Amino acid sequence: MDAHLEPVLLDGIRTPFGRYLGALASVPARALSAAPVTELIRRYPAFQRADGVLLGQVLQAGQGQNPARLIAAEAGVDWRVPALTLNNVCLAGLASVADASRRIRLGEGRRYIVGGGDSMSRAPHARLMRQAERRPGELAFTDIMMNDGLWCSLTDEGMGPLSERANRDLGIQRPEQDALAAASHRRAAAAVESGFFDGEILPFDNGSARLDRDEGIRTDSSEEKLAGLRAAFAEDGTITAGSASQMTDGASAGLVCSLAEAEAAGVTPLGRIRAWAEVAGPDNTLHLKPAAAIEQAVARAGLQLGDIDVFEINEAFAAVVIASCRHLDLPADKVNVNGGAIALGHPLGGTGFRLLLTAARELRRRQGRYAVASLCGGGGQGYAVVLERLA
Questions:
Q1: What is the pTM of this model?
Q2: Fewest Cβ atoms closer than 10 Å to its Cβ: which of 118, 228, 266, 283?
Q3: Keywords in UniProt for this one (predicted)?
């Protein structure tokens, strides 16, 4: 392939992920997303004049017109660079990578800023007020975080009850979910201890809010402690607060450019973007959507599942990873080896690119060749991207 039309992941970084109403709760979503973009432009000044800024944000209510445009301006991107805000729920950050890669393959541009972020702590409440309230009494408001981020609009139900039913249909039991959740915290704690995340996380400090590591990792988590938690969504259910991803504030951002652009800059990219896939249906469940997207993306790359050295599958719920790994028959030592969203957190639009960044860095550490990042999204959709290490 012509190096001018071959997309690569040049670099990436993210904020620490803060717990809901935690250390980053006072920070607007745009400031969270602007922080890693600002740092990337400092490292690579040419991207101040990128060909586009493509950023995911799920909780957009009250955030102003086209949040990606505002984030780009706040980060110092030239005002002549167009920006686009993506929102296919949790898929948005990973979809931004595919969108940039597609544009490069079509010859539309050479340099793109990608990623996404959300502040779940600062999502507002809303109500239609333009029509005068004629009756006395209390007013009901809609929680934007729940309605736009955690609620399936197709069947008008929360992602938790929906996933609880899928667990029953797929025969996924409580002990295996607790085991995966405990492993997520254990692996994430080990990654912190080893310094793995040091090159991935940009400490955040705006003078009032400070955080230098992911806030949700519990070093003392265990299957025994998780077994003591009550079911969250059904009296006889199997999902608990411990086996679901944490509500989180954070952002991740990266640079996608042509291989020729990277070579001209004398930079070895994190990897070549080989293929991607987006899937939906046949229902609105989450569990098997990463598996379906992975199968399609790997096939489009001309590879077999056995060729993949590293998998990142978002831990929206422990059961999603369990179901997808079962379906694909994946070995545990290749999947989420540095922990996942149960421990690190899941800031909706900020997760997709985080998965790819973590996968790329683990691939380089292992000196493997191929990695896949994947996740499910509200409404019963899935996304996956295949990355090839170049050095």
A1: 0.97
A2: 266
A3: Acyltransferase, Transferase
- Which residues have a Cβ under 8 Å from the Cβ of 269 and sit 6 or more positions away? 8, 9, 10, 11, 257, 259, 262, 390
Q: Where are the beta strands (DSSP E) in 43-169?
A: 52-56, 83-86, 111-119, 125-126, 142-143, 151-152, 157-158
**pLDDT tens, 48-78?**
999 999 999 999 999 999 999 999 999 999 9
Question: What are the tens digits of pLDDT across the range 167-189?
Answer: 999 999 999 999 999 999 999 99
Domain boundaries, the chain: 3-122+246-386
What span, in angstroms and rounded, lies between the C-alpha atoms of 100 and 111?
8
Residue closest to 285 by CA, chosen among 173, 160, 163, 164 = 163
Q: Which residues are catalytic?
A: 90, 346, 376
And the tokens for 106?
Answer: 């079509």
- Pick the closest to residue 75 from 45, 98, 118 (CA basis): 45
Q: Topology of 3-122+246-386 in CATH?
A: Peroxisomal Thiolase; Chain A, domain 1 (3.40.47)
Over the stretch 207-234, which tens digit does the pLDDT of each residue have? Answer: 999 999 999 999 999 999 999 999 999 9
Cβ atoms 335, 325 nearer than 8 A: yes
Q: pLDDT at residue 134 above 90?
A: no
Separation CA 217–CA 246 (nearest Å) = 10
Q: Where does residue 370 rank: exposed (0-12), middle (13-18), buried (19+ CB within 10 A)?
A: buried
Which of 17, 12, 239, 242 minimizes the C-alpha distance to 120?
17
